[in-house]
Every structure is written in structure tokens, then in C-alpha cells.
Amino acid sequence: MKGHILKAWTLGLALLPGFALGQTVLTRDPGLGAGSIGGSGTLGWSDEAALAPTAAPLGNSILGDRTPGAAPLQAVAPDADVTLPGRDAGGPPDDAATVLADTFVIQGDRTLIAAGGVVAWYQGARLVASRIVVNGATGELTLEGPIHLSRPGAADPEAEAVLIADSGQIDRRLQDGIIRGARLVLARELQLAATELTRTGNGRMTNLRHVVASSCQVCASDPTPLWEIRARNITHDAETRLITFDRPQFRAFGLPLAAAPFALTAPDPTVERRTGFLRPEFRTTSNLGFGIKLPYFVTLGDHADVTVTPYVSASRTRTLELRYRQAWANGVTEWNGAISRDDIEPGETRGYLFGNALFELPRGYRLGVQVQAASDRGYLLDYDITEADRLWSGFTLERVTRDKLFFGRTGNYHSLRDDENNETSPAQVADVIWQRRFTPDYIGGEGLLEWSVHAHRRPSDRDGAGRDIARASVGLDWRRSEILPGGVVGAALAGIDADIYRIAQDSRYDDLVARGDPMVGAELRWPLIGGADGVTHMVEPVAQILYSPPGRDDDIPNEDSRLIEFDEGNLFSDNRFPGWDARESGLRANLGVTWTRFDPTGWSLALTGGRVLRADPDEAFPDDSALSGTSSDWLVSAQYDSGIGLAIANRALFDDNLDMSRNELRLGWLRDDLQLSAGHLWLDGDSRAEVELPDISELVANVGWQIRAGWWGRAETRYDFAADRAQRASLDLTYRNECLTVDMGVSRRFTSSDSVNPETSVGLSVRLGGFGTSQDDLPGTVARRSCMR
């Protein structure tokens, strides 16, 4: 398959992984979670070693344009309906209870006394007590503690609602009754302690009197929790999973901070989605001043929701943000937007709209839709939306099967860069690619047939500057491999590519141009393996000879193959140009060798070296390219994996005089207390080019580390050594204990232009345990309070 098909390119359309059609309920609102505030998002880490992302991920789509994708589209199964005992559950009633105890005594009036490690199960509820007295006439139970009672009908009794008490009386169904000295524990997080608890409505309503609610651990030596909510009464509805606080008072360190003279309602920790206010966010920036965001989340059934977020800062901005999400049986969509009036652009209305949708169609086709628009690039940066400077809106249609691929897209590009003119840049672009893999008769091997169509249009009507192009191409590649004597793997290669171009509004080129480029080649690989004392060595030298008729495509403008990479991924490629407008030609040899060492202790080391030799220089490559001339630069790469989280990779290009033209170093180190991802890129500039290219030396680093128990730090930087200045930097701190999460951070963006000013941003967010996303989703440890006895 061609190099430009094998490369992992982005499309800019959010055809994103992790989306399962047929599950039609939106996920928990992400605003409930604790994340980065200062500007560097929480890094996503796996348990495997990972190398530094030296650039934004390009995804796995076929074409690359580096435009941003819209928000991830996700859907999950709906919450199961809660059916409590005493209601029709659709099956035969089971009125039998199971009781285990050390001793049983039955008195003459049919009173049953069970004592010593009593455990009783009845219709999904579980009761643990030291002593139970069952009234033979009424069936009521008198309980002596310590008592442990799960909610009747709970799908997961341990993870949902658990009642802990000293004593009480309850009916025979373990549902309604009066409990004294009670604590209600919800989702193992939120505790509600009361002097008296009453359960009614067949176990549905739990009412607590003189209540203290907190998720903080309380010690006998220090009974004051870090925070608590006091109320005269708190009611928990087991079916709606709502908690109602009657005239609540919020305290921190025992001191009253806020109170409400009316009732407040909040979802319990088991609720995934519920209409109401989300966690507020405080943000201070040098351009917008101090401000607060207060999101309000509205559920529109199981399949849709909307989030309205007013953002107000101290006299500098009035912003309204909106997000709409909806899921269907065969599709999902999300739309994000905002509208603002601020002092950065006085008198101007600014805003943005990003939306995307994905639909499953019959016969395995997937339709994608994306809309991206912004008033200006500065708006996207000022309001911390995205750093993208090119936007794409349009449609895609794709279908991938075992041996066929279809991909089509059409849309419009809009650049937000100060140095790019949208009138003279390709705006309307359309692409169609069809591929089929097959096994030819008679000759065997593997073949790949490809048809593709591309067209783009520039809005300008000026000659040359407004050049419009349409192209139709067909390609056929064939390869057959055989194992030769001595373990050598030989392969024969052949292919042909043909194109026809229609060029308009550029008098330097003919209106209609056609070309054909055949290719033949052979390849020899000799994989060798050996080892001793548990160490395994693998060596594989490779030699590839290719020939295409030499020539230079001066009659075709090169629009899609101007950025040429040379690395171990395309060392043995028949064409290293990423697009269709330029192709390698002439007689050439791709030579290389790879050595890999696997150690029994788990670490491994791999080295790859090679270069390209040509009979004559290929004029398609610029003079400053690593692939120009009769011999390319030397390519040497090394990769090390410790097997326990550390990974290092380095790639270098240098000529026969050992003058280096490129070096790229990446480092990843993942441990429980350290998550490091860093990369450095150095490129030699070229003063001989038509436009002088400066040296590039940039460092990108993300690091997260455990400062101490409960404290997790995150830092990010991008530094330009050639310009001797940082492009961006941020530092975030997160503190977590069993009942509180505090996020605070500061970030600085140093870049500036005619429409963008440098900006410093400071953020703060607080989450109380027992409300919203679980703290287990965050990296690092939790500082847990210990009670000394």
C-alpha cells in the first residue's frame, strides 16, 4: 500500500473512537469531574510506557489537514429503573426470608429471638445485627446493634445505600420503620448521621431528623469534620435518588459559612445525569480579569441534554456558553458554542460554534458532519477553547471492510492565521478514495487497486493566486513474497499510477495534464534470531531495489506533497511523498538493518540504520531535503523500553560528514508517583531556500508527580530554544482527601500577533466528595485522615 495511504493522518472530522452505536443515553456530564484549571488538561495515561506527543495527535483518518476535531462523541446504556419491593416487579413474589445466627430461640407466643452474628436476606435487602427479636403476631422486628442494612431492591447493595444504626424497629419486609442513632451511607462516600431515622413508603422514603451530612472521616478524638452540611431534616428518595435538605447550613472546620432558609435538593452520588447546577469554576486572566462560570445542566430525557453556562468577569466580559448533546439508536451529536461582549474588542460581538455528528448508515457506512466557525482566533484563545488556527466544516462518508475501503469528504476550510489569506488558500475541498485489496489469479501475491478524486477551489479570481485544481487518479500495486534458501525472504514489487489534472486560473500550467508512472522492484530480507542465557537477539538486514522512469512533473503544481518526512516508517517505501502531486522516480536502492535485543528481565533495545542510494538525483526533492542527491542522509534511530514504564526513542539524520540535519528525542516515564512525557525536536535551517528557513529547536514536556500524600502536581511547557522564549507554560496543583478535591492552576501563553495578545490565566475549582464524579478517576493518592486509638 502507498505511503500516503499507510500514514496515520487526521481528517479534522470527529470520527472518534470509543463510540458504541446502539447505546442511546448520554454520559455523565464532564463538568462534574475535577480537571485542570490553569490551562494544561489532565493527561491521559495508560499502564504502558508512552512516548512524548511532540505534536497534536493526528488520529487514524486517511487524509491530514491538522484542523481540530470537535468534542468527543460518547453514549452509554441508560440507567436501570429502580423497582422497590412491594411493587409489581413482573414475577412471582418471594415471601421467604433467609436468616443465619449463632442461636435461635422461639418463645410460646411465637416470638423468635436470633442472636450472635445475625444475617438476614429478604428480597434483595441484607440485614446484619447482633440481635433480632421477631414479633410472632405482627412480624415486626426489634433490632439491636450494631446494625447494617442495605436498601431493599438495590442492584449493588454495597455500592448504593447502606444504613448503619445502634437500634431500631422495622417491619417484616425490612423496609419501613424507625431507626435510632442511624447513619445512611450513599455510594460509600456521603454519610448522613441522624439522631433518628424513619423509613416509609415500602422503603422508598428515608427521613432523617437533626442530621449532619459529610463525606469526611470523623474521629472520636476530633469529631469536627473538614466540612459538613447540617439540617433539621434530610429526606432521601430511593426511586428518584434525590436528597432534600431542609434549611441546610454549610460549615467548614466547624464554622458556619453559608445557610439557606428554604429546602434544597441534590442528587445522591449514584446519579449519572440530573438537571441542576454543576460545579462553578473561578478563572482569572490578564485579558478578561476575574470571572466565574456557573454551568446549569438540563436533561431532556435519557437521550438529550443541554448545558447553559453564564460567564461573568469583573466588568470585562459577558458571555453565555451553550452545549447541546443528543443520542439516537444509530447516531450521536454534540454542539458547543458561545457568544460574548468584552473589552478586548469593544463594541464587537464575538463567539464561536463547534458541532459534530456521527451516524451509522446501512451496509456499514458512517456519515460524519462537522461545523466549525469563530469570530476570530483570539476569541478561541482568550476563552480557552482551542489553540487551532484552521477550521474545517463539512461532511464525510466512509465504509471499511476486510478488503475494501471507501472514504469521501467535502467541506470548507477557514484559516484564522494572520499571515494567511483565505482568498488565496484552498477553501472548498472535496476528496473521494476507493481501495480494494485482492489476490491476483495466476501470479498470486497481493494486489491493491485504488481510485481517487480530488478537487479544491480558491475564492480569488486572480491568475495564479486563485488557482483551482481537479484531479482523478488510479493506482495499482502488487507484491509477492517467498521464502528462499537460507531463510532469506524475497519479494517482487510492481505498480502503476495514472493521473489526469484539470488546472484553472493559472496561465503557467496547461488546462489539462495527464501522466503515468510505472514502478518495478525487488526486495530481500534476512531475518536472523539467536541468543544465550535468556537474552534474545534479532537482526534483519533489508535491501530494496526500485525503478521508475525518471522525470520531473514541472507541468503539475505541487499542492499536497511539500512536507516530506524521512524516518524508519518510510525507509522502505516506494514513494515517500505524502500526497499525489509528486512521486519518486529513477533507479534507487533502500538499504537498512535493524537489531533488537530482548532481555529476560523485561527491557528491550532496538537500533535501526539505513539510507537511500540513487543512480541519479531525483529533482522532485528540494536541494535542502534529506532525500536529495545521489545518496540520502543517514537515518539512525534507537528505541529503549524498560518494561516497567520508561521508554526512550531518538531519531537522527546526518550526512557523510556527520553534519546533523535533524534530531528528535522523545521520553516517556510512567510510575504511580511520576508521569513524564517530553520531546525535543531540532531541525537545521536552510539559508539557500527561496524563503530562508530558520533553525528549529523546541522542547515540549508534560509532567505529573506525587508531591506528597494527597498532593498531585502537573506542569506543561513548550519552549523555543531558537527564539530563546517559551511559547506556553502551566502549573496545576490538585489536593485530594477522602471528602474534598481542590484544583488550582496558573498558565501563561507567550505568543502574540496582530490579533492575539499574551495571556496569563489563574483558575480555582472545589469539589465536595459525595457529589459528582468519583475521585478514583484522578491520578495520584488520596490523603486519608487516620484516627488514633
Write structural notes for this entry.
The model is unreliable at 1-60, 79-92 and 687-691 (pLDDT under 50). It contains 2 helices and 43 strands. The radius of gyration is 33 Å and the shape is elongated. The chain is an all-beta fold. The N and C termini lie far apart (70 Å). InterPro entries: LipoPS_assembly_LptD, LptD, LptD_C. Pfam families: LptD.
From the structure above, extract its key features:
2 helices, cell outer membrane, mainly beta, elongated, 14-stranded antiparallel beta sheet, membrane, single chain, LptD_C, 789 residues, LipoPS_assembly_LptD, disordered N terminus
Quick overview of this protein structure:
The protein is mainly β. It has 2 helices and 43 strands. The longest helix has 6 residues, at 377-382.
Largest sheet: 26 strands, antiparallel, barrel
Range of helix content: under 10%
- The parts where pLDDT drops under 50 for at least 5 residues are 1-60, 79-92, 687-691
Report the portion of residues in β strands: over 45%
What is the average of the pLDDT values? 81
The separation of the N and C termini measures: 70 Å
Structural class: mainly beta
> What is the helix tally?
2
> What Rg do the Cα atoms give?
33 Å
Structural shape: elongated
Number of strands: 43
Oligomeric composition of the shown chains: single chain
Spell out the blueprint of helices and strands:
Blueprint lengths: L2 H4 L91 E3 L2 E4 L5 E11 L2 E10 L6 E10 L10 E10 L6 E10 L3 E11 L4 E10 L12 E11 L4 E5 L2 E4 L2 E5 L4 E4 L8 E2 L3 E5 L3 E5 L2 E4 L4 E10 L3 E12 L2 E12 L6 E12 L5 E9 L2 H6 L7 E11 L3 E12 L12 E11 L7 E12 L10 E16 L5 E16 L7 E14 L2 E5 L2 E14 L37 E13 L5 E11 L19 E8 L4 E9 L5 E11 L3 E10 L12 E13 L2 E10 L4 E12 L3 E10 L9 E10 L21
Antiparallel strand pairs: 1-3, 2-3, 3-4, 4-5, 5-6, 6-7, 7-8, 8-9, 9-10, 10-11, 10-12, 11-14, 12-13, 15-18, 16-17, 16-43, 17-19, 18-19, 19-20, 20-21, 21-22, 22-23, 23-24, 24-25, 25-26, 26-27, 27-28, 28-29, 29-30, 30-32, 31-32, 32-33, 33-34, 34-35, 35-36, 36-37, 37-38, 38-39, 39-40, 40-41, ...
